[in-house]
Amino acid sequence: MEKKISSKEIFKGSLLHVKKDEVMLENGRKSFREYVLHPGAVAVVPVLDDNKVVLVKQFRYPIGKELLEIPAGKFDFKDEDPLECAKRELKEETGFVAKAYLYLGYIHTTPGFSNEVIHLYLARDLESGQSSPDEDEIIDVQIEDFDTVLQKCINGEITDAKTIAGIFKAYFMLRSENNG
């Protein structure tokens, strides 16, 4: 374990909070750790009755290109219920509402420099509706066959980590339901 000696705030924005801590390592040496505090988020794998997945395509500024992803979003406030956040984000980004949600666990997205945790859900029994993305979101909803999306995760066409994790977890969950 590393022990915090001191902590300094580097930046505090509307989404991210950056800190720099001096730490004592297990070997007795001192070092620094710069890291990002994140409020937490959810991601949803919405699967239609015909085994198609509802995805969103959007431009991601930090990497300078569009990505195909599962719907996702950050918590609006501290200790927000992940399921409620998942319901809100699915509706906002895609217009779909699900009657059934299954919790797939959570992932640490980038533990080398952030404490971000994303809770993953499988959403089924979907009804379409009108989306209402945030003002700063330009989202293109796409519906693709589950096996096609799985193949895109495998071959590198989909590179978003939460999407890959969500699709694989949903695949194994659905497969175990169908086999057992």
UniProtKB/TrEMBL annotation:
Record-linked Gene3D superfamilies: Nucleoside Triphosphate Pyrophosphohydrolase
Q: Which domain of life is it from?
A: Bacteria
Task: Write out the GO biological process terms.
Answer: nucleoside phosphate metabolic process; ribose phosphate metabolic process
Is Isomerase one of the keywords?
A: no
Where does the record place the Nudix hydrolase domain?
Answer: 36-166
Q: Is Heme set as a keyword in this record?
A: no
Identify the Pfam families for this entry. Answer: NUDIX
User: What's one GO MF term for it?
Assistant: ADP-ribose diphosphatase activity
InterPro entries, per database record: NUDIX_hydrolase-like_dom_sf, NUDIX_hydrolase_dom
Q: Known EC number(s)?
A: 3.6.1.13
Please provide one cellular component term from the Gene Ontology annotations of this protein: cytosol
Keywords, alphabetical: Hydrolase
Cofactors (names): Mg(2+)
Q: Which PANTHER family match?
A: NUDIX HYDROLASE DOMAIN-CONTAINING PROTEIN, UDP/ADP-SUGAR PYROPHOSPHATASE
Name under which the protein is recorded: ADP-ribose pyrophosphatase
